[in-house]
Amino acid sequence: MSFLIKGVSVLGKGKADLLIRDGVIAEGGAGNAQVIDADGLVALPGLVDLHTHLREPGREDAETVETGSRAAALGGYTAVCAMANTSPVADTAGVVEQVYRLGREAGLVDVQPIGAVTVGLAGERLAELGAMATSAAQVRIFSDDGHCVADPRLMRRALEYVKAFDGVIAQHAEEPRLTEGAQMHEGEVATRLGLTGWPAVAEEAIIARDVLLAEHVGSRLHVCHVSTAGSVEVLRHAKARGVKVTAEVTPHHLLLTDERATSYDPVFKVNPPLRTAADVEALRAALREGVIDIVATDHAPHAVEDKECEWGYARPGMLGLETALSVVLDALGSSAGGAGAGGAGVDWDLIAERMSRAPARIAGLTEHGRDIAPGAPANLTLVDPAARRRIDPGESASRSRNTPYAGMTLPGRVMATFLRGEATVLDGKAVK
Ligand SMILES: NC(=O)N[C@@H](CC(=O)O)C(=O)O
Protein backbone atom coordinates (compact mmCIF):
# COMPACT_ATOMS: atom_id res chain seq x y z
CA MET A 1 0.00 0.00 0.00
CA SER A 2 1.24 3.48 -0.79
CA PHE A 3 -0.10 6.85 0.33
CA LEU A 4 0.16 10.37 -1.04
CA ILE A 5 -0.34 12.84 1.80
CA LYS A 6 -1.23 16.12 0.15
CA GLY A 7 -0.59 19.60 1.50
CA VAL A 8 0.65 18.63 4.94
CA SER A 9 2.85 20.94 7.05
CA VAL A 10 6.25 19.32 7.52
CA LEU A 11 8.78 20.65 10.04
CA GLY A 12 11.29 22.92 8.38
CA LYS A 13 9.74 22.41 4.95
CA GLY A 14 6.41 24.20 5.09
CA LYS A 15 3.55 22.68 3.10
CA ALA A 16 4.51 19.63 1.10
CA ASP A 17 3.18 16.44 -0.47
CA LEU A 18 4.54 13.28 1.16
CA LEU A 19 4.72 9.98 -0.65
CA ILE A 20 4.87 6.80 1.43
CA ARG A 21 5.87 3.65 -0.43
CA ASP A 22 7.43 0.33 0.57
CA GLY A 23 7.56 1.42 4.19
CA VAL A 24 9.61 4.56 3.64
CA ILE A 25 9.17 8.21 2.71
CA ALA A 26 9.63 8.05 -1.04
CA GLU A 27 10.21 10.36 -3.98
CA GLY A 28 8.92 10.29 -7.51
CA GLY A 29 5.58 9.43 -9.09
CA ALA A 30 2.58 8.73 -6.88
CA GLY A 31 1.23 5.97 -9.16
CA ASN A 32 -1.89 4.46 -7.61
CA ALA A 33 -1.21 5.71 -4.09
CA GLN A 34 -4.18 6.36 -1.81
CA VAL A 35 -4.53 10.14 -1.58
CA ILE A 36 -4.95 11.72 1.86
CA ASP A 37 -6.03 15.37 1.86
CA ALA A 38 -3.93 16.76 4.70
CA ASP A 39 -4.71 20.44 4.30
CA GLY A 40 -4.37 22.03 7.75
CA LEU A 41 -2.64 18.98 9.25
CA VAL A 42 0.85 18.84 10.72
CA ALA A 43 3.15 15.83 10.14
CA LEU A 44 5.26 14.74 13.09
CA PRO A 45 7.68 11.83 13.40
CA GLY A 46 5.72 9.03 15.07
CA LEU A 47 5.60 9.62 18.82
CA VAL A 48 7.69 7.39 21.10
CA ASP A 49 6.59 6.58 24.64
CA LEU A 50 9.35 5.59 27.03
CA HIS A 51 6.96 4.61 29.81
CA THR A 52 3.87 2.49 29.10
CA HIS A 53 2.19 -0.14 31.23
CA LEU A 54 0.67 -2.76 28.92
CA ARG A 55 -0.26 -5.19 31.74
CA GLU A 56 0.33 -8.34 29.67
CA PRO A 57 1.20 -10.92 30.90
CA GLY A 58 -0.95 -11.10 34.00
CA ARG A 59 -3.57 -8.36 34.01
CA GLU A 60 -5.16 -8.80 30.60
CA ASP A 61 -8.43 -7.64 32.16
CA ALA A 62 -6.89 -4.15 32.47
CA GLU A 63 -4.93 -4.03 29.17
CA THR A 64 -3.28 -6.28 26.64
CA VAL A 65 -0.35 -5.62 24.37
CA GLU A 66 -2.85 -5.35 21.53
CA THR A 67 -5.34 -2.97 23.19
CA GLY A 68 -2.55 -0.81 24.58
CA SER A 69 -0.87 -0.74 21.17
CA ARG A 70 -4.12 0.41 19.58
CA ALA A 71 -4.51 3.17 22.17
CA ALA A 72 -0.92 4.17 21.42
CA ALA A 73 -1.48 4.34 17.66
CA LEU A 74 -4.59 6.47 18.22
CA GLY A 75 -2.45 8.80 20.30
CA GLY A 76 0.03 9.19 17.42
CA TYR A 77 2.63 6.76 18.74
CA THR A 78 4.66 4.38 16.60
CA ALA A 79 6.76 2.93 19.43
CA VAL A 80 6.22 2.31 23.14
CA CYS A 81 8.49 0.92 25.84
CA ALA A 82 6.59 -1.59 27.96
CA MET A 83 7.24 -1.43 31.69
CA ALA A 84 8.36 -4.54 33.52
CA ASN A 85 5.81 -4.64 36.39
CA THR A 86 3.75 -7.38 34.80
CA SER A 87 2.87 -10.73 36.31
CA PRO A 88 5.17 -12.56 35.99
CA VAL A 89 7.58 -9.65 36.15
CA ALA A 90 9.63 -9.03 33.00
CA ASP A 91 12.87 -10.01 34.73
CA THR A 92 13.99 -12.82 32.40
CA ALA A 93 14.76 -13.21 28.71
CA GLY A 94 11.65 -15.39 28.41
CA VAL A 95 9.19 -12.73 29.53
CA VAL A 96 10.71 -9.83 27.59
CA GLU A 97 10.75 -11.99 24.47
CA GLN A 98 7.08 -12.83 25.04
CA VAL A 99 6.14 -9.13 25.28
CA TYR A 100 8.26 -8.32 22.23
CA ARG A 101 6.58 -11.08 20.22
CA LEU A 102 3.08 -10.01 21.28
CA GLY A 103 3.93 -6.49 20.12
CA ARG A 104 5.06 -7.74 16.73
CA GLU A 105 1.92 -9.87 16.37
CA ALA A 106 -0.34 -6.89 17.17
CA GLY A 107 1.65 -4.87 14.63
CA LEU A 108 0.23 -1.49 15.65
CA VAL A 109 3.31 0.07 17.25
CA ASP A 110 6.79 -1.22 17.94
CA VAL A 111 6.72 -2.58 21.49
CA GLN A 112 10.14 -2.41 23.12
CA PRO A 113 10.18 -4.27 26.43
CA ILE A 114 11.84 -2.75 29.48
CA GLY A 115 13.47 -5.30 31.79
CA ALA A 116 13.26 -5.30 35.57
CA VAL A 117 16.38 -4.22 37.46
CA THR A 118 15.80 -6.64 40.34
CA VAL A 119 14.29 -10.12 40.51
CA GLY A 120 10.53 -9.82 40.96
CA LEU A 121 10.93 -6.03 41.54
CA ALA A 122 11.80 -7.06 45.08
CA GLY A 123 14.86 -4.80 45.30
CA GLU A 124 17.07 -7.58 46.64
CA ARG A 125 19.20 -8.97 43.82
CA LEU A 126 19.86 -7.99 40.23
CA ALA A 127 17.77 -9.63 37.53
CA GLU A 128 19.39 -11.25 34.49
CA LEU A 129 20.17 -7.95 32.81
CA GLY A 130 22.69 -9.42 30.38
CA ALA A 131 20.38 -12.22 29.29
CA MET A 132 17.62 -9.70 28.58
CA ALA A 133 20.03 -7.46 26.68
CA THR A 134 21.19 -10.30 24.42
CA SER A 135 17.69 -11.77 23.99
CA ALA A 136 15.63 -11.27 20.84
CA ALA A 137 14.05 -8.27 22.59
CA GLN A 138 17.48 -6.56 22.90
CA VAL A 139 16.52 -4.77 26.10
CA ARG A 140 18.42 -1.55 26.75
CA ILE A 141 16.24 0.09 29.42
CA PHE A 142 15.86 -1.49 32.85
CA SER A 143 13.43 -0.30 35.48
CA ASP A 144 11.67 -1.49 38.62
CA ASP A 145 9.02 1.19 37.99
CA GLY A 146 6.23 1.02 40.51
CA HIS A 147 9.07 0.46 42.98
CA CYS A 148 12.25 2.41 43.61
CA VAL A 149 15.62 0.67 43.50
CA ALA A 150 16.11 1.95 47.02
CA ASP A 151 19.28 0.06 47.98
CA PRO A 152 22.20 2.28 46.90
CA ARG A 153 24.59 -0.62 46.47
CA LEU A 154 22.17 -2.43 44.17
CA MET A 155 21.59 0.77 42.21
CA ARG A 156 25.33 1.22 41.81
CA ARG A 157 25.77 -2.38 40.60
CA ALA A 158 22.93 -1.98 38.11
CA LEU A 159 24.46 1.20 36.69
CA GLU A 160 27.82 -0.57 36.41
CA TYR A 161 26.33 -3.63 34.77
CA VAL A 162 24.44 -1.88 31.96
CA LYS A 163 27.44 0.24 30.98
CA ALA A 164 28.84 -2.69 29.01
CA PHE A 165 26.00 -2.51 26.48
CA ASP A 166 25.16 1.21 26.76
CA GLY A 167 22.05 0.39 28.75
CA VAL A 168 20.17 2.79 30.96
CA ILE A 169 18.57 2.44 34.38
CA ALA A 170 15.19 4.18 34.54
CA GLN A 171 14.55 4.98 38.18
CA HIS A 172 11.19 5.38 39.90
CA ALA A 173 12.50 7.95 42.37
CA GLU A 174 10.69 7.42 45.64
CA GLU A 175 12.45 6.93 48.98
CA PRO A 176 10.11 4.29 50.40
CA ARG A 177 10.70 5.18 54.05
CA LEU A 178 9.44 8.70 53.36
CA THR A 179 6.26 7.60 51.60
CA GLU A 180 4.94 4.87 53.87
CA GLY A 181 1.15 5.00 53.78
CA ALA A 182 1.21 8.00 51.43
CA GLN A 183 -2.00 8.76 49.55
CA MET A 184 -1.32 12.08 47.85
CA HIS A 185 1.12 15.01 47.70
CA GLU A 186 2.19 16.18 51.15
CA GLY A 187 0.97 19.72 51.48
CA GLU A 188 -1.90 21.95 52.38
CA VAL A 189 -4.54 19.99 50.45
CA ALA A 190 -3.52 16.68 52.07
CA THR A 191 -3.75 18.30 55.48
CA ARG A 192 -7.20 19.61 54.69
CA LEU A 193 -8.37 16.21 53.43
CA GLY A 194 -6.70 14.27 56.24
CA LEU A 195 -4.76 12.06 53.83
CA THR A 196 -1.17 10.91 54.46
CA GLY A 197 1.28 12.91 52.37
CA TRP A 198 3.98 11.86 49.84
CA PRO A 199 6.60 14.56 50.33
CA ALA A 200 8.48 16.10 47.40
CA VAL A 201 11.76 15.34 49.14
CA ALA A 202 11.14 11.59 48.81
CA GLU A 203 11.61 12.03 45.06
CA GLU A 204 14.32 14.68 45.22
CA ALA A 205 16.52 12.73 47.67
CA ILE A 206 16.63 9.67 45.39
CA ILE A 207 17.33 11.73 42.26
CA ALA A 208 20.16 13.52 44.09
CA ARG A 209 21.66 10.21 45.21
CA ASP A 210 21.28 8.62 41.79
CA VAL A 211 22.84 11.44 39.76
CA LEU A 212 25.86 11.18 42.07
CA LEU A 213 25.99 7.41 41.58
CA ALA A 214 25.61 7.79 37.80
CA GLU A 215 28.42 10.35 37.77
CA HIS A 216 30.63 8.11 39.89
CA VAL A 217 30.04 5.09 37.66
CA GLY A 218 29.97 7.05 34.39
CA SER A 219 26.76 5.35 33.43
CA ARG A 220 23.37 6.42 32.06
CA LEU A 221 20.49 7.23 34.38
CA HIS A 222 16.96 8.07 33.31
CA VAL A 223 14.54 9.54 35.84
CA CYS A 224 10.92 8.46 35.46
CA HIS A 225 7.94 10.82 35.97
CA VAL A 226 9.65 13.84 37.54
CA SER A 227 7.00 15.68 39.52
CA THR A 228 8.51 18.45 41.65
CA ALA A 229 10.20 21.83 41.22
CA GLY A 230 12.99 20.66 43.52
CA SER A 231 13.72 17.65 41.27
CA VAL A 232 14.13 20.05 38.36
CA GLU A 233 16.80 21.93 40.31
CA VAL A 234 18.68 18.71 41.13
CA LEU A 235 18.58 17.71 37.45
CA ARG A 236 19.72 21.14 36.33
CA HIS A 237 22.71 20.89 38.65
CA ALA A 238 23.57 17.35 37.49
CA LYS A 239 23.30 18.24 33.81
CA ALA A 240 25.53 21.28 34.30
CA ARG A 241 28.15 18.88 35.72
CA GLY A 242 27.87 16.67 32.66
CA VAL A 243 26.17 13.73 34.38
CA LYS A 244 24.61 11.36 31.82
CA VAL A 245 21.08 11.81 33.10
CA THR A 246 17.83 12.19 31.19
CA ALA A 247 14.39 12.78 32.64
CA GLU A 248 10.74 12.51 31.74
CA VAL A 249 7.56 14.30 32.81
CA THR A 250 4.07 12.91 32.32
CA PRO A 251 1.25 14.82 30.64
CA HIS A 252 -0.79 14.72 33.86
CA HIS A 253 1.97 16.33 35.91
CA LEU A 254 2.03 19.11 33.31
CA LEU A 255 -1.68 19.85 33.65
CA LEU A 256 -3.29 18.67 36.89
CA THR A 257 -2.67 19.62 40.52
CA ASP A 258 -3.30 18.07 43.93
CA GLU A 259 -6.49 20.16 44.20
CA ARG A 260 -8.11 17.38 42.11
CA ALA A 261 -7.93 15.11 45.15
CA THR A 262 -10.59 17.21 46.87
CA SER A 263 -13.12 15.25 44.77
CA TYR A 264 -11.88 12.04 46.47
CA ASP A 265 -12.23 10.51 42.99
CA PRO A 266 -9.46 7.86 42.79
CA VAL A 267 -9.07 8.52 39.06
CA PHE A 268 -6.75 11.31 40.29
CA LYS A 269 -4.68 8.98 42.45
CA VAL A 270 -1.31 8.43 40.82
CA ASN A 271 2.30 7.77 41.69
CA PRO A 272 4.09 10.13 42.04
CA PRO A 273 1.08 12.17 43.10
CA LEU A 274 -0.30 15.27 41.44
CA ARG A 275 1.59 18.22 42.93
CA THR A 276 1.07 21.97 43.32
CA ALA A 277 0.53 24.66 40.70
CA ALA A 278 4.09 25.90 41.35
CA ASP A 279 5.45 22.42 40.57
CA VAL A 280 3.38 22.31 37.37
CA GLU A 281 4.84 25.65 36.28
CA ALA A 282 8.41 24.50 37.03
CA LEU A 283 7.87 21.25 35.07
CA ARG A 284 6.52 23.12 32.05
CA ALA A 285 9.48 25.50 32.08
CA ALA A 286 11.94 22.59 32.49
CA LEU A 287 10.41 20.74 29.57
CA ARG A 288 10.64 23.80 27.38
CA GLU A 289 14.21 24.46 28.45
CA GLY A 290 15.36 20.84 28.11
CA VAL A 291 16.24 20.17 31.76
CA ILE A 292 13.48 17.61 31.36
CA ASP A 293 14.19 15.81 28.11
CA ILE A 294 10.94 14.12 27.22
CA VAL A 295 7.25 13.60 27.83
CA ALA A 296 6.39 10.00 28.75
CA THR A 297 2.83 8.93 29.43
CA ASP A 298 3.12 6.47 32.35
CA HIS A 299 -0.06 5.03 30.80
CA ALA A 300 -1.31 2.96 33.77
CA PRO A 301 -4.58 1.17 32.98
CA HIS A 302 -6.47 -0.29 35.93
CA ALA A 303 -9.53 -2.52 36.07
CA VAL A 304 -12.75 -1.00 37.44
CA GLU A 305 -12.50 -2.81 40.78
CA ASP A 306 -9.03 -1.37 41.34
CA LYS A 307 -10.14 2.20 40.66
CA GLU A 308 -13.81 2.60 41.48
CA CYS A 309 -13.44 2.15 45.21
CA GLU A 310 -12.42 4.23 48.19
CA TRP A 311 -9.40 6.48 47.59
CA GLY A 312 -7.30 4.60 50.13
CA TYR A 313 -7.84 1.24 48.43
CA ALA A 314 -7.53 2.40 44.82
CA ARG A 315 -4.41 1.59 42.80
CA PRO A 316 -2.40 4.58 41.63
CA GLY A 317 -2.20 5.31 37.91
CA MET A 318 -4.06 6.86 35.00
CA LEU A 319 -4.48 6.33 31.26
CA GLY A 320 -2.30 8.49 29.05
CA LEU A 321 -1.61 7.24 25.54
CA GLU A 322 -4.65 8.57 23.69
CA THR A 323 -4.61 12.00 25.31
CA ALA A 324 -0.89 12.76 25.72
CA LEU A 325 -0.40 15.02 22.71
CA SER A 326 -3.57 17.01 23.41
CA VAL A 327 -2.64 17.46 27.07
CA VAL A 328 0.85 18.61 26.16
CA LEU A 329 -0.54 21.08 23.60
CA ASP A 330 -2.91 22.39 26.25
CA ALA A 331 -0.27 22.59 28.97
CA LEU A 332 2.43 24.23 26.89
CA GLY A 333 -0.08 26.44 25.11
CA SER A 334 -1.59 28.03 28.16
CA SER A 335 1.72 29.15 29.63
CA ALA A 336 3.73 29.62 26.43
CA GLY A 337 1.39 32.20 25.04
CA GLY A 338 1.11 29.82 22.09
CA ALA A 339 -1.40 27.26 20.90
CA GLY A 340 -3.88 29.79 19.61
CA ALA A 341 -6.67 28.88 17.23
CA GLY A 342 -5.64 26.21 14.76
CA GLY A 343 -2.45 25.48 16.65
CA ALA A 344 -0.91 28.83 15.74
CA GLY A 345 2.09 29.47 17.93
CA VAL A 346 2.74 25.82 18.81
CA ASP A 347 6.43 25.01 18.73
CA TRP A 348 6.10 21.81 16.70
CA ASP A 349 9.83 21.27 16.65
CA LEU A 350 9.78 21.18 20.47
CA ILE A 351 6.89 18.70 20.42
CA ALA A 352 8.76 16.48 17.93
CA GLU A 353 11.92 16.65 20.04
CA ARG A 354 10.31 15.94 23.41
CA MET A 355 7.78 13.33 22.26
CA SER A 356 9.61 11.55 19.43
CA ARG A 357 13.26 12.28 18.70
CA ALA A 358 14.63 12.42 22.26
CA PRO A 359 12.73 9.37 23.58
CA ALA A 360 13.84 7.40 20.48
CA ARG A 361 17.45 8.38 21.18
CA ILE A 362 17.26 7.43 24.86
CA ALA A 363 15.71 4.06 24.01
CA GLY A 364 18.04 3.46 21.05
CA LEU A 365 15.10 3.04 18.67
CA THR A 366 16.85 4.10 15.49
CA GLU A 367 13.85 3.53 13.21
CA HIS A 368 11.86 6.12 15.15
CA GLY A 369 12.16 9.81 15.82
CA ARG A 370 13.70 10.45 12.41
CA ASP A 371 13.30 13.55 10.29
CA ILE A 372 10.53 13.25 7.75
CA ALA A 373 12.73 13.03 4.65
CA PRO A 374 13.12 10.69 1.64
CA GLY A 375 14.52 7.30 2.60
CA ALA A 376 13.48 7.49 6.26
CA PRO A 377 11.19 4.77 7.63
CA ALA A 378 7.60 5.98 7.29
CA ASN A 379 6.84 6.18 11.01
CA LEU A 380 4.79 9.31 11.35
CA THR A 381 1.60 10.86 12.58
CA LEU A 382 -0.70 13.55 11.18
CA VAL A 383 -2.23 15.97 13.67
CA ASP A 384 -5.14 18.38 13.26
CA PRO A 385 -4.16 21.27 15.52
CA ALA A 386 -7.45 23.11 14.97
CA ALA A 387 -9.61 20.25 16.25
CA ARG A 388 -10.88 20.24 19.81
CA ARG A 389 -12.37 17.10 21.30
CA ARG A 390 -14.26 16.23 24.40
CA ILE A 391 -12.74 13.23 26.17
CA ASP A 392 -15.20 10.37 26.53
CA PRO A 393 -13.76 7.40 28.46
CA GLY A 394 -16.22 5.12 26.67
CA GLU A 395 -14.49 5.85 23.36
CA SER A 396 -11.06 4.74 24.56
CA ALA A 397 -9.34 1.83 22.82
CA SER A 398 -7.83 0.86 26.15
CA ARG A 399 -9.41 -1.97 28.13
CA SER A 400 -9.53 0.39 31.09
CA ARG A 401 -11.43 3.61 31.64
CA ASN A 402 -9.33 5.48 34.20
CA THR A 403 -8.74 8.70 32.31
CA PRO A 404 -8.54 11.83 34.47
CA TYR A 405 -9.62 13.97 31.51
CA ALA A 406 -13.21 12.66 31.18
CA GLY A 407 -15.47 15.49 30.08
CA MET A 408 -12.60 17.89 29.40
CA THR A 409 -12.25 19.49 25.98
CA LEU A 410 -8.67 19.36 24.75
CA PRO A 411 -6.93 20.78 21.68
CA GLY A 412 -5.53 18.78 18.77
CA ARG A 413 -6.45 15.45 17.29
CA VAL A 414 -4.42 12.64 15.75
CA MET A 415 -5.92 12.01 12.32
CA ALA A 416 -3.54 9.35 10.97
CA THR A 417 -0.59 7.26 12.12
CA PHE A 418 1.74 5.17 9.97
CA LEU A 419 4.02 2.38 11.15
CA ARG A 420 6.63 1.51 8.51
CA GLY A 421 4.30 2.83 5.84
CA GLU A 422 1.22 0.91 7.03
CA ALA A 423 -1.68 3.00 8.28
CA THR A 424 -2.63 2.12 11.84
CA VAL A 425 -4.98 5.12 12.16
CA LEU A 426 -6.91 6.89 9.37
CA ASP A 427 -9.56 9.60 9.70
CA GLY A 428 -8.92 9.56 13.44
CA LYS A 429 -9.97 5.90 13.73
CA ALA A 430 -7.99 2.72 14.29
CA VAL A 431 -7.56 0.80 11.03
CA LYS A 432 -7.36 -2.66 12.65
N1 LIG B 1 2.25 5.40 38.02
C1 LIG B 1 1.34 4.79 38.72
O1 LIG B 1 0.59 5.44 39.47
N2 LIG B 1 1.16 3.45 38.64
C2 LIG B 1 2.04 2.54 37.99
C3 LIG B 1 3.18 2.11 38.83
C4 LIG B 1 3.66 3.13 39.79
O2 LIG B 1 4.53 3.93 39.43
O3 LIG B 1 3.20 3.10 40.94
C5 LIG B 1 1.25 1.30 37.62
O4 LIG B 1 1.84 0.33 37.13
O5 LIG B 1 0.03 1.31 37.79
Automatic annotation (TrEMBL):
Sequence positions that bind substrate: H53, L54, R55, N85, N271, H302, P316, G317
Entry binding sites for Zn(2+) 1:
H51, H53, D145, D298
What SUPFAM superfamilies would the database entry show?
Answer: Composite domain of metallo-dependent hydrolases (SSF51338), Metallo-dependent hydrolases (SSF51556)
Against HAMAP family, the record matches this protein to: PyrC_classI_B
Cofactor mode of binding and number, as noted: Binds 2 Zn(2+) ions per subunit.
Q: Which reaction does it catalyse?
A: (S)-dihydroorotate + H2O = N-carbamoyl-L-aspartate + H(+)
Q: What does this protein do?
A: Catalyzes the reversible cyclization of carbamoyl aspartate to dihydroorotate.
Q: Which GO terms describe its molecular function?
A: allantoinase activity; dihydroorotase activity; zinc ion binding
Write out the entry's keywords from A to Z. Hydrolase, Metal-binding, Pyrimidine biosynthesis, Zinc
Membrane as UniProt keyword: no
The broad enzyme category this protein falls into is hydrolase
What are the recorded Gene Ontology BP terms?
'de novo' UMP biosynthetic process; purine nucleobase catabolic process
Q: Does the keyword Metal-binding apply?
A: yes
Q: Name one GO cellular component term.
A: cytoplasm
- What residues sit in the active site? D298
UniProt record similarity statement? Belongs to the metallo-dependent hydrolases superfamily. DHOase family. Class I DHOase subfamily.
> Which residues make up the binding site for Zn(2+) 2?
D145, H172, H225
Q: What is this protein called?
A: Dihydroorotase
**Cofactor(s) of this protein:** Zn(2+)
The protein's annotated pathway: Pyrimidine metabolism; UMP biosynthesis via de novo pathway; (S)-dihydroorotate from bicarbonate: step 3/3
Listed EC numbers = 3.5.2.3
Domain of life, source organism? Bacteria
Which residue ranges does the record assign to the Dihydroorotase catalytic domain?
42-229
> Organism source for this protein?
Phytohabitans suffuscus
The secretion signal range is none
Q: Name one Pfam family in it.
A: DHOase
